Amino acid sequence: MQTEGEGVMASEWAATAGPSSVVATTQPFVEVERRSGLGYAEFVSRYRRPRRPVILTDAAAAWPLYGQASPDDFRRRFAQKPVRVRGRDYRLGELLDLLQASTPDQPGPYPCKFAIAVDFPELIEDVAPRFGYSLPDRQGSRLLPQRLFHGVNNLEIFFGGPGGEFPYLHYDVMRLHAWITQLHGDKEFTVYAPGQEHLLYVNPEIPWQSSVENHHHPDYERYPLMRQAVSQKILVRAGETLFLPCGWWHTARSLTPTISVAFDQLGADNWPDFVSDVVAERRRLGVGAKGELLGAYLRAAGVLMRVAECFGAHRRTRWGDR
Ligand SMILES: O=C(O)CCC(=O)C(=O)O
Ligand SMILES: [Fe+2]
Q1: CATH code, 252
Q2: Which of 30, 76, 92, 101 is the most buried (most CB within 10 A)?
């Protein structure tokens, strides 16, 4: 189905119910399923290995913040907390007021995102343990130069209001797997399967981002190939966690006041993708020879990490532990 002005939509509200009631599609990729009580082995074989997104309804159920994260809860705990969004200073209570008054016509600021470890250290224990589906994670490995993650926040909290739209279409940098838990409200993700880069006007300077402005409503005169791109809308509701495998292009918008927690995962399965993006970035920056060396080191380190993982490495469930 292709509608003027909307590109190709695999389905509307692809995952509003369980696997049996997803909307049928004629598109080439499979619908996003909504699962609960999923076993780890099935998660790996059915979703992570084939790189198929899934919504887990109970992945974060053990977090103390689960079910306790409304704007009112945050106002009670943090109303006076100073926060900075897009160069402007607010108190969190004031920001939450703006977001609750936000409408699609007059949206409040978005994204209001904060590194939990830096801006909300009080919350670290409230979003733990890290759920097992998202492990192992190599990002904290001692074999991995941590400067590679400079500027990448690995555990973020987002506040949004109706009409708040994420500003660019992207995949998560360095091809990390993305995990996004919706603690409050409804957020709509628009996702594009990997392999459609030739239709998405990839920004040559920032190859994990599309250069299509206003991508929620693209200008198809200017970006005609976008019409052929197959997208899918996924509604993620309070309590649910979206797994977006590496390389899936996505963007999001809040339909109601929302609070979400997002983090990334780097495992053996997306290691080759990670290494090639890291090397390609060095090449793009004109330091290709250094990039090749780094790539060789990372490939070797990956072998060691794989062995270590057989003995339980990279399975820490506390944030910040290495
Ligand atoms: O929740 C959102 O607005 C999208 C977040 C996202 O994709 C990201 O931070 O990488
Ligand atoms: Fe993302």
Answers
A1: 2.60.120.650
A2: 92
